[in-house]
Design goal:
Helix 4 (about 55-70) packs across helix 5 (about 85-95). This protein is globular. The longest helix has 24 residues, at about 5-25. It has about 280 residues and is of the alpha/beta class. The chain has helices spanning about 5-25, 35-45, 50, 55-70, 85-95, 110-120, 160-170, 180-185, 195-205, and strands spanning about 75-80, 100-105, 125-130, 145-150, 170-180, 210-215, 220-225, 255, 260, 270. It contains nine helices and ten strands. It folds into two domains: about 5-50; about 55-225, 3-Layer(aba) Sandwich (Rossmann fold), CATH 3.40.50.150.
Length: about 280
């Protein structure tokens, strides 16, 4: 092989390696579609917390306490979308002042398995659900606090997810989000928002108020916003009181031996051995 040919082959290999690094590592599969994103998070689930270097003291000071201070409720009902390994539920549940309940969703089954292990000491104060974010299985105005951290840029339709997050928040309730920044944000065109654009989207398109984008991490700002209006707190209700059947639309579940059954349409949703609710599967009656 001639030297020019060797150089050409090397350049081609380098270009392929760079493309794979960009598509699989830097942008975590988002340009390859939902299945690629889920697959990558499944692959990294077992070491995800070590990669992120989560620290309980930092989580308390910069995540749990600021949220609880703004929320102002001792026993709220919380929805955490794209919960991953259960970072936010764990941070809240470890606070003595928090007496609420949490429903946490994700589409990476292996990430949920990690979350289930960490959150098992808290029993029925937290439910883990395998379900997508674009069509949440809950009625309007169900939650006092709705969160989605470090995830919107990996959604296939971030605006649709945001509309759902707002829909299920009660009037007067708190939303906590993140907005990516820095070089990584610029490397994800179409999936990230400049801060001023994101704030305008929340205020003008989604009608939120008291929008704050505050320094948080190197790659993210944390975002607080209120849903306009006022309603009584949802309170620490049980899952069965807010879970809407995706088949018939009823909130009419009863626990059975291996999961839950909808009394209105007889749909059966199984619960995994680790406690994760397999709500994304189409179970029959």
């Amino acid at each position: 092989m001639t030297w020019p040919a060797i150089v050409a082959v090397g350049a081609a290999v380098g270009a392929v390696a760079a493309a794979l690094w960009y598509l699989l590592i830097k942008t975590e599969g988002v340009y390859l579609g939902r299945r690629a994103v889920i697959w990558l998070y499944d692959v990294y689930a077992g070491r995800y917390d070590r990669i992120k270097q989560y620290d309980p003291v930092t989580e308390e000071l910069y995540l749990a306490q600021p949220i609880l201070q703004r929320l102002g409720l001792r026993a709220p009902l919380v929805l955490d979308v794209a919960t991953g390994t259960g970072r936010l539920p764990l941070a809240l549940l470890e606070q003595p002042s928090f007496q609420g309940r949490i429903i946490a969703l994700d589409l990476s089954r292996r990430m949920l398995a990690q979350a289930a292990t960490k959150l098992s000491p808290f029993g029925d104060r937290v439910w883990l659900m395998h379900h997508a974010a674009e069509a949440l299985p809950f009625p309007d105005a169900s939650f006092d606090l709705v969160t989605c951290l470090e995830a919107l840029e990996f959604m296939m339709d971030a605006r649709a997810v945001l509309r759902e997050l707002v829909r299920v928040t009660r009037p007067g309730g708190l939303l906590v989000l993140t907005n990516r920044q820095g070089l990584d944000a610029r490397l994800m065109p179409g999936h990230t928002f400049p801060h001023e654009v994101f704030a305008r989207l929340l205020r003008e398109e989604l009608g939120l108020q008291d929008v704050e984008l505050l320094p948080w991490q190197m790659d993210y700002r944390i975002v607080y916003a209120r849903k306009p209006g006022h309603s009584p707190p949802a309170g620490a209700r049980s899952l069965e009181e807010v879970w809407r059947c995706s088949r018939c639309g009823a909130v009419d579940w009863v626990p059975v031996r291996y999961g839950w059954r909808c009394l209105s349409c007889e749909r059966l949703v199984l619960r995994g051995a680790d406690g994760v609710i397999e709500a994304d599967r189409q179970s029959s009656g």
